[in-house]
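Troubleshooting log. The previous structure file for this entry was overwritten by mistake, so regenerating from the original sequence record. Sequence copied from the archived sheet and checked twice against the printout by T.R.
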Amino acid sequence: MTLYGIPPAGFRRLMAPERGRDHAHAIADAAHAWWVANRGGSGDRAIAVGTLAGLALSAPSQSEGPDYGPLLIPLSDEGLVDTLRAGWNTFRLYDPDLAAVARPLHEWLAAPTENDVRGLSDYARVLVRAGLLEYCSDLARAESDDLLGLMIARMRTYAERQSTGEFFTPAMAADNIGEVIFATERKPGDLFLEPAAGTGTMARAAAAALRVYGTDPASYRWWLNDLDPLNAACCAVNSQLWRLGRRVTVSCGDALNQPRLLEESVQRRAEQAIAELEERPVLYPTRTRPPFWPF
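Regenerated output below.
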């Protein structure tokens, strides 16, 4: 039985790849293949990754939660844009500072062009059919790999990565490092600091290791930084997908050479984000009811 062209969520879970890492790669491959075929190369990567991130944040917090697939499948391009706006509005209410960091992923929604939204509903259908909602609603799957990082790596050319010296740590390597880091004693309240976080895969591995040892990552403090604004934006979203808790700081700057300036800019940004929320509670006007917020 199918509903709006897709089987029920329970059946989609059964059909998903057994390993979460394989599932993440399948979603990233399907998303990237559609984008290249229909939107061309690595252009508009903020829209490609931002749409993926916005839908990921809207997934239920539990695998047995409500099925949003049938609600997303029938949407038009304009309907999907409205839905994404509602989701980012909710994210901003939840954490205005992280939403400010994530701005590169959603600021295009303020005044999208016809080309910006062209085919986005088809892109969303690809993501839903690839199992994005089921992947993100299952924490064990969601923290098995860095889905946003996989997508960014596919969207960036070899020349771009070479020019910035960017290297995305493979999930397996990150998992091994995470095991080593947390093999020693750690106590709640300690700070996990990653000055060159990329999209956050080391934090993902550390959080997974903490859970293996029976500790909630939310009881720790996290500070993730990267020089690239899009990477930092993905860290902000990933911190929620991986349930790192409310004591998360994400920054974008030179944490190695200018740590004091970075701390000051983070403080100013947080104060400004709260002031803007009080002045303008709704970031993007929308007609769509906000999605169930899972966190």
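The longest helix spans residues 259-279. Archived copy saved in two places this time.
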